[in-house]
Structure formats: structure tokens, C-alpha cells
TrEMBL record:
Keyword Oxidoreductase tagged: yes
Protein name: Putative DitA1 homolog
InterPro entries, per the entry: ARHD_Rieske_2Fe_2S (IPR015881), Rieske_2Fe-2S (IPR017941), Rieske_2Fe-2S_sf (IPR036922), Ring_hydroxy_dOase_asu_C_dom (IPR015879), Rng_hydr_dOase-A (IPR001663)
Top-level lineage group: Bacteria
Annotated family: Belongs to the bacterial ring-hydroxylating dioxygenase alpha subunit family.
PANTHER family with a match to the protein in the record: 3-PHENYLPROPIONATE_CINNAMIC ACID DIOXYGENASE SUBUNIT ALPHA (PTHR43756:SF1), CHOLINE MONOOXYGENASE, CHLOROPLASTIC (PTHR43756)
Amino acid sequence: NVCPHRGMKVSTLDAGNTQAHLCIYHGWAFKPNGDFIGAPAEKECMHGKIRTKAELGLQKARVAVYGGLIFATWNIDGPSFDEFLGDAKWYYDMLWCRTTKGMEVLGPPQRFMIRANWKTACEQGASDGFHAVTLHRWLAEVCPYAKKPSTEGAGEDLTPEMYGVEVWTDHGHTMRCIDQNRKIRRLTGKDPSKMTVEEKLTVLPPPGLTPEMVPDLFKNLSKEQLAVLASSPPQVGNFFPNGLFEFIYLPMADGKVMGAMALHAYVPMGPEKLMFMNWILAEKDTPPEVKAQMLRVSCQLLGTSGMVEQD
């Protein structure tokens, strides 16, 4: 998205269609695929004679589409996308490839600027679960996560909510897999030890799913993946280096929880400045009224002015 002439940003839009992209600086025009069309004053050869038109197109990245997400790299001859994901793909599939129709975004992304080096945000996104004990302590004081003096984690101790499994790969991808059985006991009052995998997934569906959507999981995931999804599912993690995802249960005013799915990107804007981008996601098959509720609750908790992100 950079004009090869003087480095101007060509398109300033996130989405749309056009027959030609026009650089606002000198009017150089490009096809949707990036090929150079021409420049004003063509007779006078404004675009010069050193390079042919075929050499003046926009630089093309190597692109891969996975689970509805678009990944790109300038390393044309580097490792394949599957090699880049490595062993993490087995876990990622439980989140991004679990339904037949896949996901969609609920509106444009939210954005805000942070005065910090982008790498510090990425390190936080690499499954640092222990910060919640202090930074998000209020979660232990309200709604379904509130502790009772006589229960596990007496008083306002959020520590047991952090118990789980840490998954990481040599490529830098990480995930926190949280104990789902504890959540089933606390939120439903049922005993998970007496339930089948399907029963556990139905009584407390993965974030973003309704009980009616659970059968679709069995069409897209292996027996082993379903077992992990029902016991210690990945809930927070990252795509190395600068993507963070959340598939979590958020407390609601009525004391229940709402599943939420969000994707953050930490975009470097300079040595000490980054843009925080936040997309709210939903499965395409999710009922419209549930999507609306997910969007509202996600913005209230995970949005740019949300209670969690404000921490």
C-alpha cells in the first residue's frame, strides 16, 4: 500500500472496491492487483525510463488465508504458512476452524493509540495470565466470578481462575488453556466428572457458540481436539509477533456469562507509539440477537473504553 514513486500511502480505506487505486500525491494509478497502469503526463514520461511499467507495480506480499484471517509476509521465499504456525495449528483449529461456515467481524475495528513500544504489548499478549490476579482483581469481586469466603480461593482470591496449561511453540505462538471443569461447576452447578464430552460442550458451550451450534464442532474437529475443548480449551493467546486473541466468558449484569471473541493487533507507529486495533468476532451461524448481545458486552469489557482494557 505504498506508492513506489515517493512512498505515499495509496489507499486510506479499510475495505471497498475500485477499478483503480490512485495515489493522491502525483496521480500514479494501479490496478486492484497492484500492477502499474500509468501516470499523468505520460508523453513526458513522468514515470521515467529507468524502469518499465511492469517493474513499477505495488510491492506484493505472500498471503495466506486461515480461518477467515489474512496473513501476509514480505519474506517471499520463507517458511510455508503451516511451518510458521507449527504445532500451534492443532490448537488454533479449535478456535478458528471449528464451524463449517466460519466467523465474521461485527463491524469495523476499534482503534486507539498507546504511548509504548509495540513489543511490550506483544510480550503481554504472549499468555501472561498472572497479571489478572492483580490488574483485573475486580473480576473476583463481581458477578459469577465473585468468591465466597467458604469456597475455593476464599474471599476475593482470583488465583484459581488462572489455573490451566501453558502452550507455546518455538515460533513464539502461545496459548493459555484454562480448566473448563472448574467453570462448569461454578457456572452451572453440574459435576463434569459425570458428563460426556458432548454434554460438557453443550451445558457450557465454547465462547461464541450456542448449545444448538455444538453438533457442528463434531463435524470439524477430531476426537482429541474435542476432548481438549471440553477440558482445557485455549482461551487467550497470540499469533507471533503482534496478534492477540481472546475466546473468553464475560460477566453480565444479570449474573450470567456471555461468550466473547476478540482479535487484537498491536501495530507499530514509531519507536514509542503503537496503534491498538480491536475486532469483535462472531460465528456466521450465531443468531442475530446473540450477535448483538456479544457485540455490546464485548465493547463494554474488551473495547477501547471497556472495563478490562481500561485496566
